[in-house]
Amino acid sequence: MEEMEDIVEQYKRQLLEEEKEELAKNSGTIAEFKVYCKSKGVSLGDDDFRYFQKIGVVAISPNLITNICQDIIFDKDKLVKFDDLVKDFGKLRLESGYVPTENYMLLASPFFRRGFHEENNYAPRFLELFLGRKMRSIKSIALDLDRVRIDVDGPMCFEFDTWYGPKFNDAIENISDGAVKIRPPLDLQERFISFYFADAYSLDVLWSTKDRIRTFQLEEFKTEAVKIENSNNTYFPVRYIHAEYDSDMNKFRHLDGAIHLYKEQQYFDRRDKDLNYYRNNFNTIKPYSIKLFKFNGEIENEDFIEFTAQFLTQNPLIHEYFTGKYPDYISIDFIRSTIK
After folding, report:
1. Which three-class secondary structure string do you get for 8-40?
2. Residue 198 pLDDT more than 90?
3. Which run of H or of E encompasses 143?
4. How confident is the model at residue 183 (pLDDT cuts 50, 70, 90)?
């Protein structure tokens, strides 16, 4: 145990040394960016710059984007239209969630990053699909409002998963209204849930119909081991998908994704119940919601499935829901045999 702690401490020291070296190497870029921000009425000090190994040199200040880039138009959900980003900035790093400008790079929301942690790389392949897929719908996405990357020409870090979007039955009309809850096998130990199911606790799905519009809702609960700090509070992050299917058009007309942040008591009150319970008790269990992306317009069934699957990256439960089985890399018999 002590040896492992020593290794961790040594790794942390190495990261600190690397950060000092990279900040010193980019001192000229930092000075230029300070001048640029000053021209926009924003004063930044040396402590407002950090280096993260998987991101680069980053300037950090509350509402930095809205202060230095006042031409960006946010909608009521604090999202930005993809076409506006392309029009205003010209090019995007499709694989990585970065929007280069002359002086800095806009970043997609940290809730797209692995483990929802702001120092991690973006989880593949959702952003690649979102930015690269040509669609008829209007696409909007959440940005990191407090941070920009300033070493525009620096190296990029890429990570890849072995899991991709599953196939799905296009017969949406044949899906019955009602709630579904999916969980990993209950006899699996925590370490196997963590490793094979990326800490997934449950997946809740609800289909409902009004007139000719079918509504899809999904919440993904992680185990209580997955927490984040936000505004000095501890929250349990739950990924959420909402979609609307037009039965006359035989296509989806809307798709959006968000993070629901549950306080501890809310989390434990909600996670073993289904979305019907959530809908009927919305006023008593109402999480803080942050919208991350949305599409408005014609959305093909396969796009709905792929974006939903990739938004829930690494969670085999979504594969089970769409296909009726786990992905090929999971064998429950093998997992159980390792426990004995």
Report:
1. HHHHHHHHHHHHHHHHHHCHHHHHHHHHHHHHC
2. no
3. strand 143-149
4. confident
- Using CA atoms of 64, 67, 72, 74 in order, give the dihedral in degrees to the nearest 10: 80
**How far is the first Cα of the chain from the last one, in angstroms, to the nearest whole number?**
25
The position carrying tokens 């929802």 is 116
Of 152-166, 247-261, 277-291, least confident by mean pLDDT is 152-166
Task: Using the CB atoms, write b or e for 246-270: b if 16+ within 10 Å.
Answer: beeeebbbbbbbbbbbbeeebbebb
Q: Provide CB contacts within 8 A for 197, sequence distance 6+.
A: 184, 188, 315, 316, 317
Q: Which among 240, 234, 232, 168 is positioned nearest to 204, based on CA atoms? A: 240
Q: Which two tokens mark 27?
A: 């001192």
Question: Cβ distance 239 to 259 under 8 Å?
Answer: yes
DSSP-derived secondary structure for 317-336? HHHHHHHSS--TT--HHHHH
43-47, 86-90, 124-128, 293-297: range with lowest mean pLDDT: 86-90
Per-residue pLDDT of 123-171, as tens digits, reads 877 888 888 788 889 999 999 999 999 998 877 766 555 433 444 566 8
Prediction pTM value: 0.77
The neighbour count for residue 113, using CB atoms within 10 Å, is 21
DSSP string, 263-332: -HHHHHHHTTS-HHHHHHTTTTS--EEEEEEEEEEEE-HHHHHHHHHHHTTT-HHHHHHHHSS--TT--H
Show the tokens assigned to 55: 């991101």
Neighbours of 217 (CB within 10 A): 17
Choose the most confident range, by mean pLDDT, from 2-6, 110-114, 280-284. 110-114
